[in-house]
Amino acid sequence: MEEGSSRNKENFEMFDVVQENNNEKAGVSADVTEPGRLRSYGDAVFATAATLLIVPVLEFNIKREETLKEALSRHVPKFLVFLGGHLVICSVWELQLVRQKIIGKTDDFLAILNLLSLVFVTFLPFGVRLASNYPDLHTSVSLNFLLLLEKVLELVMLKYASWKKLLSVEYQALDNVEIAKEKETFWYCVLFLFTLLMAWGSVHYMGYVTIALAIFIPYVIAFCRWLWKDSSNSLWKYWGCIERERMETLTDGALVIVGTILVIDFSTDNFPTESAIQKYGLWHCLTDKRYNFQTYLGTYLGVCIIWFTHHSVVRQFEKFTPILVIVNNFFLAFMACIPFLAKLVYNTNTADFITNSTSTLNSTMNHSIVGNPHTYLPTAVAFSSSIILIGSLTNIILLIASFCNIEQKDGKCCEIKCSKISSDKVYLILTAIVVPFLSLITMLVSLTSTSKVTVEWTFKGCMVVAPFVLFFLKCYFGCCRKGSSSSYEQILNADPVEPRSKDNANDDDAKDDHTKDDKEESSLTDRKSVTSYGSLSVRSTSQLNPIELRRIKNKV
User: Fold this and answer.
1) DSSP state at residue 371
2) What are the extents of the domains in the chain?
3) How many C-beta neighbours within 10 Å does residue 344 have?
4) How many CB atoms lie within 10 A of CB 410?
5) How does pLDDT run across 25-76, given as a tens digit for each residue?
6) How far apart are CA 131 and CA 125, in angstroms?
7) Are residues 223 and 260 in contact, defined by beta-carbon separation less than 8 angstroms?
8) Helical H runs in 357-422?
9) Which of 120, 178, 255, 468 to pair with 6, CA 20 to 30 A apart?
10) Residue 165 carries which DSSP code?
11) First-last CA distance in the chain
């Protein structure tokens, strides 16, 4: 199997060399390069556009004689718009991945077209907010028009890449009949989507149906691919599955913005004025902003903990299936609400401080919270903990999926087998449970207690305890793995087997020859299980027997 994979790799390398020679003979320009950096830039743009949808939600206010629960209920449409817009941008990103998988090389003109298509992506947050604030003024047409222009540019890029022979190696390896059939099917799908956007996008309220279709189209196509796939050499293999590196890039870009967006709060709006510094002094003005610093540091620390947990879970995958992509999209949507949750808890916790303070610095602050903060803080903490709890549960869902090995045959799922629980998996389970468990404790305390002090210190205590718990788990399981690694080294450094006598040599050789095929078959099945869905790319040392360990030692 390894020889076959190495032979395929050599064939692809030879194909690249032949393609480069043909390009040189054909006079292809030297600006043809790999699209790695362009793809990373596009992922960052999509992550930024999807995360900045939370900015309108940050404009939260409470009317007089209104409780916090009533205010949150009044802002539910804003949360739904944010969730829908986030899923729309993620769906557009997934459709863009299909085009990037088909196009293997890029030149300057193709890069310019790609950058132009990203311009319409950056306007999607504006179109989403316009459609949500003014639903009766045919504003959904603007959002559909942006999606339409982005798809038109994708068609131009695909046609240009086909004309300049910049398609991927796998796509060019297909037969001419298969390429013609796949192109015809692909263009029919794109033409249908184009007509749908033109017709429904211009009709009032039907534009929202088009937006909903834009969300679910990638998953419908992936389901059709799973249902009707006949051969592995098909264009449909480009739909649905996403490489782990691309998903990590999108997630990292979104979480970076989530963790640092609150720095704008005390860098622009609440920045100390020159008159306040001259009257009260710089130290007093900075002390007056201590709750802003605490809120920002707490938000950044929470995002770092969530990123670490997500990183530990995601590295168990090689590719993301459509179901896992949906789970990760919901994870990003709930995590993007963290700035709003932090600001909500900050306002409810400092409303009495802002009202009673005599500092002129606070006169410029937005007094969005009125009334008794002692009744608002438990509600705010309970709401924030529930959002974080739901978002962190997606990591547990991903972790459970990574423990299940789905054996495939002819492109369809045949059997789901759960792997054995090892110490590494116990560590991953405990790591993924830390954030949901602490969020659940905070939510229960805030729902059962009306004391502001109890809720506040429980909330802050859980935030401080979380990194120490993760550090303790790493130290504990690190020591356990150190012990197992020492036994592994003992096996590697074991003395060689004593020489056999001549009488027993022939019998032992016959037994070795008899069991050689069985060992090769078992190792082959182990390799197949390693490459199955949701499993690790390298087996752990606990799965290797002493004979294989000695082979490793001899090779070294």
Assistant:
1) S
2) 31-228, 240-249+262-355+377-489
3) 25
4) 9
5) 444 556 788 888 888 899 999 999 999 888 888 888 777 777 888 888 888 8
6) 10
7) no
8) 373-402
9) 178
10) T
11) 21
